[in-house]
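Hey team,

Sharing the DNA polymerase I run so nobody has to redo it. Sequence (903 residues) first:
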Amino acid sequence: MSANDLNGQRILLIDGHAMAFRAFFALPADRFTDGRGQSTNAVYGFTRMIFTVVASERPSHVVVAFDLPGGTFRDRIYDQYKGGREVTPPQFHGQIGLIQQVLDALGITWLTVPDYEADDIIATLATRARAEGGEALVVTSDRDAIQLVGEGVTLLQPVKGVTEMRRMDAAAVLEKYQVPPERYSDLAALVGESADNLPGVPGVGPKTAAKWITAYGDLDGVLDHAEEIGGKAGAALRENIEAVRRNRLMNAAVLDLDLPADASGFALGRGDREKALAVFDELAFGDTTRRDLPEILLADGGAEAEPAAEAEPDLPLDTGEDLRALLAAAPFELALETADDVRAGALLGLAAAGRRGALVLEQLDEEASAALGEVLTAAERIHVADLPSAREWMQAQGYALGEQAHDLSLEAFVLRPGSRSYDAESLGSTLLGHVAEPRPRKPTAASLAKEAPEVRAEHVERARARVAAAAAMLLPVAAELSAQLGDAPWARRLLDTLEVPLQATLETLHERGIAIDQGTLAQLREEFDGFVAQARREAGALVGEEVNLSSPKQLQVVLFETLALPKTRKIASGYTTDAESLVDLQLSLPVESPGHEFLSWLLRFREMSKLTGYLVGLDAAVDASSRVHTTFQQTAAATGRLASTDPNLQNIPVRTAEGRRIREVFAAGEGFESLLTADYSQIEMRIMAHLSEDEGLIEAFRSGEDLHRFVASRVFDVAPDDVDSAMRSKTKAVSYGLAYGLSAFGLSRQLRISQAEATALRDGYFERFGGVRDYLRSSVERARETGYTETILGRRRYLPDLTSDNRQRRENAERVALNSPIQGSAADIIKLAMLAVEKDMREAGLSSRMLLQVHDELVIEVAPGELEQVRGIVVEGMDGAYELSVPLEVGVGVGRTWLDAAH
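Structure output:
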């Protein structure tokens, strides 16, 4: 580089492999493919990261450095270097090459140097930039880059995927590590680096290492005075001096690689728009990526973009006056995000085209509050993530969201189920590659009390900026989702006919809640507490001492030392005490032995503790009218099944007598005479018969005989009357195991039979029901070809792992491909039934009302005199929800409590 090349300029230096890996693990691989089986999540995340960093930092030059396969000079120094790293995930293969294609199209230089790492390329260029009076920004997760930080060099360190960056200057490094940047390599030599398989001094952490370096100046000073350092840490240091010297040699950055001398080759503004768009099309990136391509990267846009270094800022939307100004611009679309801040209270983020802001609702005067209400009414469309939560939150603040509000989370879920989260920032990250500010830690009450007013105000402004940014981001998220839905008519149809109407029904169910008999609840709590105490007492008596049955460490001592029982599976902390292992262990012991009896009481303790905990949570959720209000979530399960939270009313145990008794607590409320429960009988098997078109299964359902007895008679080749309970149980397990993608190994574990017997049982099943075998095979192959599975209503679940080179990933995806159409179709049918029952009961003008959906069961609160009418509506609505090739059988029970209504 000549002296003037980077003088006064800013160069962005990116560790290509490090950031690609972070992008890979930050975004779900199953939601990003090019349509031909190649995963592209790392490419997408990396590309969005480039867009974001270039747009926010406005560099003049960019270089991306990559490692080369085959190792470097460091591997010759220490043959265990990076030896502890896991095998590269198969879905990552090929993505580095695709990233380099994107960089070529964008005109961004990428470099590799044989025998050296990307770190060394970055270190050389950062050192040159600083020497020439330029500024270097280093983007990497590798902590070795900390040694480069100083005047002219800043580290942008990702703290969450590639969406959040921590800006590390010299002051930040000193605050975090208690040593200046130039001494960080000394600290790392003492502490070690697990990511590089460089072991440090045992028992020496960053604080101790920093204390030694501060006392003796640098690493050489520490080693020169090693004999003076006392205690175990000093002894460990003296025993590991050679390893420490080796670590320092390994982590030292190379500053003088022979790299291109002309910085003009690194300048921005050399990208080809057409090539970039063609690459994005090949990668199946959406319209958002095309739209957000920064002009500064392009040869035909850079010059034009140069004068407009800063985008025109959005107008504020923080006051009543701002809200009135927005009203004058009607019609408008609005995006909305809510937050509860520990300092400011209720924060409402709002955004419209060219406007964004965040309102502290407690500070609004009467006029501003009225203006906000008018804005919410006047908006022709309101974009929200998680509409039910937002609606409830707004209602608690005294505002209403009307029918023009719609749920972006629900749209994203239908298009691509299975994400960990669908909140505003997650949607922005997944769909737009948005980089959010790191979430601050919640302060303690003590620190809040000591906080200065100006510091408090600063935190509040930061929180307001965050919620405003989240709201503003929902506008392009909505546009991207709209574009994707335009290309996916199946998803649009599913939203319009099922999921959106159901959302309103679920909000109604939440408002209604279900009544709790608090007397019965208190009685059960006392009784179950007694069972817990008894189990603890009896277990202690068997070993002659009090035992903390909740402590895995104490249990290991009692089980494997005091009682000398056979060892379970080895784990890091000793031997496992998980439930499955303990049940297996108990079955291997003589029934009258102390070990068997101790395990009986231990398992009893765990069961009753779990039930007691459920009752405690239920008690805490009861409102002033003695009802609990669960929240039904539509986006929690990739199969489309609903989930219940706060409290979860879908996980009430029913396998044990005590678990079933919890349903005694739920009763008909005041003004109602009973609860009616209605559920589908064997719906998964009926869907299996329908989808597989297996004549044997269809005959079983149409005959009206006991399904599992009918199937067992065919599998075991005996008359139905000769089928015993063991035969019936085994074939029932096979039937449902196939519907849930259970392997022969899983079947053997469930039935506690050998894997050979389980395989023979499954093969015998397939021999008699060949249509099921053929359907299961074809469904996996069809999903492998198309990339997704489909339910009877067209709900899709994308499974790119079906073509994975990794056997475990591929087999997991195959199991999902087997069960998703069946479980998903069952979810579709019960949702259709809910809509029909709710509609028909309302049109009939009944006071009775639907309260809960629990998997394949509906719970109805019946008003006096309406039982028979309600029964007819529920049975007709469920039976007619969807026409299968076999009848949908609905069972009904009625009683004062949920337990009484069991059938």
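The first helix runs from residue 16 to 26.

Ping me if you want the raw files.
A.
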